[in-house]
Amino acid sequence: NCEIWMINVANRSDRPRHLRMFTFVQWCLGNYAFQLVESAFAHLFNEVMCEDGIIFAESRFWNVTPPGEPMPNHAWDKCAFMGGDFEVAGFDCSGEDFIGMYRSWNCPEVVEIGQCRNSIARGREAVGVLQRNFDIPVGLHRSSVVVVGLAPSRRAAAELVAKYQQEGVVLREFERVREYWDDYLRRVTVSTPSSDFDLSVNVWNKYQAWVTSRWSRMDSYYIGGGSIIGHRDSWQDMLGVLVAEPDWVRERISYLLRHQYSDGGTLHNWDPRTDLGVRTGHSDDPLWIAHGLSEYLRETGDFSLLDESVPFYDQGEGRVYDHLTRALDLALGRLSPRGLPLIMVADWNDGLDQIGREGRGESVMVGEHLCWMLKETAEICQRRNDPARAARYRKAAAELARNVNEIAWDGDWYWRATTDDGEVLGGAGCAFGSIYLNAQSWAVLSGVATGERAIRCMDAVWRELDTKAGPALFLPAYRDPNGRIGIITRFAPGTKENGTIFNHSVAWAVIAETILGRGGRAHEMWHKNSFLTRGRDADYRAEPYVYAEYIHGPDSTRYGQGEFTWLTGTAAWMWRACLDHILGLRPTYDGLLINPCIPAEWDGYRVRRPFRGDVYEVEVQNPGHAETGVREIVVDDKPIEGDLLPIFGDGETHAVRAVMGR
Questions:
Q1: Which has more pLDDT, 494 or 275?
Q2: Displacement of CA 151 from its chain's centroid (Å)
Q3: How many distinct structural domains can be found in the chain?
Q4: Final residue belonging to a domain, choices 183, 203, 235
Q5: Is residue 594 part of a domain?
Q6: Which of 54, 60, 155, 237 could connect to 83 by a Cys-Cys bridge, CB 3.0–4.6 Å?
Q7: What is the rounded CA–CA span in Å between residue 539 and residue 562?
Q8: Does residue 350 contact residue 497 with C-beta atoms inside 8 Å?
Q9: Residues in a beta bridge with 46
Q10: pLDDT above 70 covers what percent of the chain?
Q11: CA neighbor of 490 nearest in space, from 505, 499, 478, 472
Q12: Of 215-224, 409-418, 484-493, which gets the smallest average pLDDT?
């Protein structure tokens, strides 16, 4: 729970230097959203002071209401701190005293005059500033260590500062961090003809997926994502680390299931410090339990997880298998009279938050997702010797697929949803939002759309939604607010979910293209949307090494600009789209599938991938420049039939050579 800064200043000039160094943090104590929204009021509870060269930052009030209590009435139970390995020449804990009246962060008054005021922040805006004065002779250097963190008490904070005041300890910890990342990044590696693809899959996309798996939406720099663990978000985020860290994912699954109700519903999000959250009624929430569990079981083959007991959030406990089936049974009980899922509060697209408030609006995307998860769970049931339930789920999936195809097909694509009044969203007759991306991609992912219909709906995506950054979420953007549709229409055109390139959805479209066997199109879509490609565009204006939540759409005055980086489910999904679907190394219950879907111009590629305790070093050759298909596989110098690599279970590394073609 601490962050260590190592600062080294060298004097390469021709004269001795006398320098002053000022550390700086702006404290946010207790509750992120409360501190930002009610900042002037929240500052009144701050208690920040410096003792023995360490700044301790505490709050007399924590804006959370524990279960069974009528209102917040507790102090924050943590102490933030800052200390260093140097003699402190001064400090400041009050932001106003450090910055100065009518000043800005660009020119703090204390830095200008060269001496801290030794201010405390009792009921004031809180900062952490420690001053060090030092001399550096010509040719020499001076190092400093600063420790910033969070502890349960002042005593524990002081112990952490004392521990890391020793340079040797700090260097050893830094080496441990380096070793961790070297090991993690080496677990799965790829080598393809595309240097951008390799850099993304091997380093930056992989790293972002790790960050989102741990931080969920708390890595946000905008308030809507702060201080919470999202249910649907976390089930998806963990997919990005499942290949490299199956044991961590197993623990995460149990943690997430503890936030499910006994009727199958779930919290939508919660504060991990208090475990308090909200049950919103989003129609897609229960489905992500099935999605995450089926992915875990295919990767690990660990069916013993299904028999473990996990408590429900409200009352009682059940086996993981019970959690799974209750989630699906709840979803099956929420169908409209004509057999499509009710959207309720909203579905994956939170912006469609008014179309189902009266209990009649429908969601085609949830219908496609539910159909997919029914088939996935039926397979799990069959393997658990529960054939009656498996048959029931397969029958429900077939009926749902038929309903979606008969009701929601609009001629060239699927419409997206209906409102409580029966108005169609995402149909060809709509002036705005006439085609939605997710209704097409999920039709293919789920198997609802097959054959010519699958090709037609994805062709419509290219024809109607293609932009310089990949397919838009829908187009045209809504121009005027519409209270019967929801907040999606209130976002400015081309921003947030209103007609943007919503990168999460682009990943699903990439996978859909690989299912159709169109490797060139899948890679083109990935390339246009990649943060590396976008970072070369002056319009992007966001970090060029991580995915943003969205990119401004064609109807925005800032078309092409990235917004809300880091916090997006794009990271996990796009990484899996590249590994599982473009490179085609996909886990199944019975082995590792090789089914590439690549640009025809690629001569081949290599992948190193762990699977169930073994390591597979795979070389794929493409002498005929095919987009998909494998005609020959050799494992450890022995040809095998089919395209499924066997499970060895010997903990060894196995050499695989696959030749593409039909």
A1: 494
A2: 27
A3: 2
A4: 183
A5: yes
A6: 54
A7: 8
A8: yes
A9: 59
A10: 99
A11: 478
A12: 215-224
pLDDT-derived band at 224 (thresholds 50, 70, 90) equals: low
559 falls in which pLDDT band (50, 70, 90)? very high
Asked if the model's pLDDT at residue 225 lies above 60, the reply is no
Residue range 618-629, pLDDT digits in tens: 999 999 999 999
Query: Please, is 441 exposed, middle or buried when counting C-beta atoms within 10 Å of its C-beta (0-12, 13-18, 19+)?
Result: buried
Strand ranges (DSSP E) for 397-497?
A: 417-418, 424-425, 435-436, 474-475
Asked whether residue 265 is assigned to any structural domain, the reply reads no
CA distances from 606 to 51, 511, 520, 658 (A): 57, 20, 18, 10
Asked whether the beta carbons of 345 and 352 are under 8 A apart, the reply is: no
Respond yes or no: is residue 350 known to be catalytic: yes
Structural domain range at position 624: 585-660
Report the chain's mean pLDDT, rounded to a whole number.
Answer: 96
623 within domain boundaries:
yes
Among the listed residues 350, 353, 555, 643, the single catalytic one is 350
The verdict on residue 462 lying in a domain is no
Provide DSSP, 500-554.
Answer: -EEHHHHHHHHHHHHHTT-HHHHHHHHHHH-HHHHHTSTTT-S-TTS-EEEE--T
Q: Per the structure block, which two tokens stand in for 543?
A: 């970090």
Closest CA to 27 of 51, 64, 56, 3: 56
Q: What is the DSSP string of 575-614?
A: HHIIIIIIS-EEEETTEEEE--B--TT--EEEEEEEETTE
Predicted local distance difference test score (pLDDT) of residue 65: 82
Quickly tell me which residue has 């690989």 as its tokens. Answer: 514
Residue 520 near residue 500 (C-beta atoms within 8 A): no
Distance from C-alpha of 20 to C-alpha of 260, rounded to nearest angstrom: 54
Q: What is the pLDDT of residue 219?
A: 60
pLDDT of 5 strictly over 80: yes
